[in-house]
Amino acid sequence: MTSVCTPKRISGCYLALLATAMLAACATDPAANPQDPYESTNRRVSEFNEKVDTNLLRPVAVGYQKNVPGPVQTGVENFFGNLKDVWSTVNNALQARPMDTAETGMRVAVNTVFGVFGLFDVATWAGLQRRSADFGQTLGVWGVPSGPYVVLPLLGPSTARDTVGWTFDNHYNLWNGVEPTGLRNSGIALRVVDMRAGYLGMDTSLNEVALDKYSFVRDAYLQRRNPKGWKHNLPADMRENDGADGADDGADDGDLPGGAIPVEEPVVDGTHNPQDVPVVIEGPQVTYERSPPVDQKPEDKPENSE
Fold first, then answer.
1. CA distance 240 to 222
2. Is the pTM value of this prediction over 0.70?
3. Do residues 251 and 227 lie in contact, with contact meaning Cβ atoms separated by under 8 Å?
4. 3-class secondary structure, 180
5. What torsion, rounded to 10 degrees, do the Cα atoms 207, 209, 215, 217 define?
6. Alpha-carbon span 216 to 222, nearest angstrom
7. What CA–CA distance (Å, rounded) separates 145 from 237?
């Protein structure tokens, strides 16, 4: 979710997020998931976010989806997506991905000029695919550990690394420089509602299939933000990194306990490539018995040609 923090208030936003993390540190559960040491606090924040979503954001998003014409919704999504592509181009360059940098930069140029400032996605029609990248991902490629999982008020799932990355993403969001303030805030609200409308079907399915919604969202988020799943120019020391604490876990995917075989399947958390998320499937060992050989009768044996 996009915040209403402007570049002038970015320091205050960062301090607020830092304070949230410090409060969470006071509620560490020794028996919690190693990647989620503040689970009890995170669950309370998640419940608060769900109440805000249920009582405010979701009803507005439903009304937006029902009453706003489809082409207008597409134009809103394209326009803000084009602004995001500008920052993605920078992050692709910082991650030493020249091809993605060039393609994303071309998308910005084509959509800005021929797509009327991004209202129409001409670049996709021309074969230029979106290569999204953010500063949290950039920090991961640089080898910065993800740190603990945290749930931020109103912003949702994150990690310590992604929280720092979000402050940079928000600061360099081009829309935050728009004046007057009323227009800027109206655009931010429109973008938030449009994004929420895009998840209306997904949240219904999530409520139906997830026994524990909090754990499902957490695990899906951590898998998606795992540098091991990014098929880009990762440093050599990160290719065997679990992406959780910046250290090698010492386990190889090809040597799993119990003879398990890693099978790659897609997930519903927005992962771009199905191969990004390894799923381990274990089954009983199958043995095959061979029938004892049957002695051939003399008449069945081949005659010696000599």
1. 16
2. no
3. no
4. coil
5. -70
6. 10
7. 12
* DSSP assignment string, 225-236: T-GGG--S---G
Q: What are phi and psi of 97, to 5 degrees?
A: -115, 80
Q: Is 297 helix (H, G, I), strand (E, B) or coil?
A: coil
Q: What is the pLDDT of residues 94-136, one digit of tens each?
A: 999 999 999 999 999 999 999 999 999 999 999 999 999 999 9
* Distance between CA atoms of residues 158 and 221, nearest Å: 8
Distance CA 180, CA 52 (A): 28
Number of domains the chain contains: 1
Say if residue 180 is preceded by a cis peptide, omega within 30 of 0: yes
- Among residues 92, 112, 95, the alpha carbon closest in space to that of 174 is found at 112
Helix or strand run (H / E) with residue 272: none
Residue 152: φ, ψ to 5°: -90, 140
What is the domain extent for residue 147? 1-306
Question: Which runs of consecutive H residues, i.e. helices, occur in the chain?
Answer: 10-25, 39-52, 58-67, 70-94, 98-114, 122-125, 135-141, 160-171, 181-197, 200-209, 213-224
Give the pLDDT confidence of 36-66 residue by residue, as tens digits.
Answer: 999 999 999 999 999 999 999 999 999 999 9
SS3 label, residue 262 = strand
